[in-house]
């Protein structure tokens, strides 16, 4: 939990849940597991506010609670992790992926679940159907069964999973792996069981839900809100009470990883090779575990049969492509045997490491120039080099090479390794070798990325705060315009209202909007880099 | 990096192997922190545009806006203004977050996080929040009162009296509490009656919200 991560998490919590939750969240992140009294004391907020914030955090999976360390009688402890909160940056990407895979229905389902944290299937289906009905033309409405089938498809492909039932609170699952652990070992808290350790994780419950989406009439807004609230409180039982669903981020990450590998192959080689790799990854979706180093071996015959029908390449050409892929220095595909026409695997971890390495190289190139990037790549390939050797291999004059090396060294992208000839490390009798360690450098750049995103968010908040009055005024005018248009006003009235904003103010507003959009899309782009670096760091850590 | 021993110009590392030649001097030492916004030699690349990036941007902004309107966005009531006003007594009850706007499944949360909520009584009394002890006391009172109502007719009046007394107590307690409760939607129509008064809520507008619009570009004088 580095300082940069905590700062970024605090900003994300503030934007999405308000300042109260930000205070409570940062307190949990900074000081580890605490009980309720400590949190109240440290943050200085009122009891009710702290309770409510903790509930919001638990609802969204950002905070876990467990019985205290001193045994079953001690107060419950709450702990929070940076990872879950940092996922908030990636929400737009999840929603967009759901849209490309499952259409608008899938997109709205994922969006609702991300907004609410945990929800039952019936609740989600109803809300999504209502939202879809809002956007359809008059007289048409969305049937619940369509939404339910989209939901089931998402569960089948593991994009959604059930929230794990709590051990001790509510019914205990019969195959709960940790029921005996908690009373037996009061000193060490049992690690919270992952959702996947429950066998029903991906089982769609039998649900009786028949109906169509309801369109909300805008004329009676106030009454409708009360009706909607009353609807929520109606105890309609649909047969799936107590079963809550959440978005399975790991599955989305696997999908992103596959996409990254396929596009890398397409960029490096050509479209057909990327199709072959896509086929291989698709075939091994269910058989590969998330932490696997490489996919299960697939024979060339199987690959040939599973290629999409539009790509009818003859068998020998496929073999040639596979040989090319295996010989490629990026090592995306490896050969695991000769049976069945050749057994091929996709090297997942090596592909991730190569992608991260490419990211590092491009960072150096953009920041320090192409010659420094050449030195960096050289050091990555040759591991340890002396000053003289660097100059020779990189074919850069000595003075400039020295300057660049020192700049890289001062930025900590390159390290100096001393190899003594004598035990007293005398400088005249020691080798000084330059080297690059990929993993610590990747970690350092990852922290830089977190700092970047935090700075972007702060700048955006600063810009909005500066022009707060202007933004409010423009919002008010837009609301007036919308209501006038809805009630059918003449064009003169509309232009009159529009003229309430003067021209320089409009310019200022446009500039402000442009800045905010730029900052937002910059955040999205940095998040892509964060994803690549994070997946490499995590895969290297586990392997 | 200068030698600490004799005053000879030797450095702690060998000069040759690290590549500094005789004639050159070391770069000047820095004696202040590096500048906050250093000049960049290479300009950064422009952002990737395209349909996908724009759609992602729109999704992100929509998501942020939607989160602000959900009940999980907690905002404490705005800090009270500099001087206490008479209308505060009637305005502050509007802002209390009475009912939880989302009814969570209490099974999934630890016991201690339960917030007991007093449901609004039928005569439009404002909703307040209390902690466990008060709720228990009230529950006991209510149970006792219900039994009496079943038996006698006069205790109906007594219950109303007691409830209005409790509301007085609660209103006082609320004012004593320094932290304010969270904002929430109004549970009742604004035009309805506040407790103990016969006036509609707009009677208590103290005119401070009027004229808050921009005063720039006003060609007419203000009288």
Structure commentary:
The complex is a heterodimer of chains A (543) and B (223). In chain A, the strands form four sheets. In chain A, strands 1-3-2 form a three-stranded antiparallel beta sheet. Chain A has a three-stranded antiparallel beta sheet with strand order 4-6-5. In chain A, α15 (348-368) crosses α22. In chain A, 61% of the residues lie in helices and 8% in strands. Chain A has 22 helices and twelve strands. By secondary structure, chain A is mainly alpha-helical. Chain A has helices at 3-17, 19-31, 36-43, 47-59, 82-86, 91-116, 121-135, 144-156, 181-184, 221-233, 249-268, 271-283, 300-306, 315-327, 348-368, 370-382, 387-394, 398-410, 438-466, 468-486, 491-498, 503-542; strands spanning 34-35, 63-66, 77-80, 119-120, 160-162, 244-247, 298-299, 333-337, 343-346, 384-385, 415-420, 430-435. The longest helix of chain A is centred in the last third of the chain and has 40 residues, at 503-542. Chain B has 223 residues and is mostly helical. Among the domains of chain B are: 50-76 and 93-102, no CATH class; 132-164. Chain B has a two-stranded antiparallel ribbon with strand order 1-2. In chain B, α4 packs antiparallel against α5 (154-176). The interface between A and B is large, with 73 and 57 residues.
